[in-house]
Amino acid sequence: MLLAQSAAARMEEADPTASIALAEDGIALARAAAAPDIEALALGVLGRTLATHGRVDEGLARLREAIELAEDVGSLQGRVMGVATIATILARWGRSREALADIDAAIAAADDAGLGRSLGARLIAQAAPRADVIFIP
User: N or C: which end of the chain has fewer CB within 10 A?
Assistant: First the structure.
C-alpha cells in the first residue's frame, strides 16, 4: 500500500517516471501477496499517471483493470473513484460523451445494488469542481 501511496504523491510531477515505477512495483508486490484491493489502488494510480501525462488510452486501460478488481473485492467506493477518474480524464481530453456513458453505467450498477442515490451524489460532488472541463458538443 505504501508504494501505491508514494506513487500517488508523485503522479503530478512533470516527469512521471518515479510515479510509474512506484506504481508498477506496488502492482507486482500486491499480486505476489494476493492483495487485489492494493493492486486495484496501484493500478488506479498508474492509470491516472499515464493518462495525465499523455498516455491516455494506456492509462484508461489500467484504470478499467482497477475498477474490475474493485468490483471483484466488492468495493463500490473503488468503482466510484475509478469511474470518476476516468470521466474526468475523458472530459479533459475532449471525450465527454464517453465520460457520460461511464458515469451512467456506474449509476446503473449502483442502482442495482440499492446504492444509486449515494453514488449519484458522490459523482456529482466529484464532478462539480471540474464542471468547466465537461463540454458536450
Answer: C
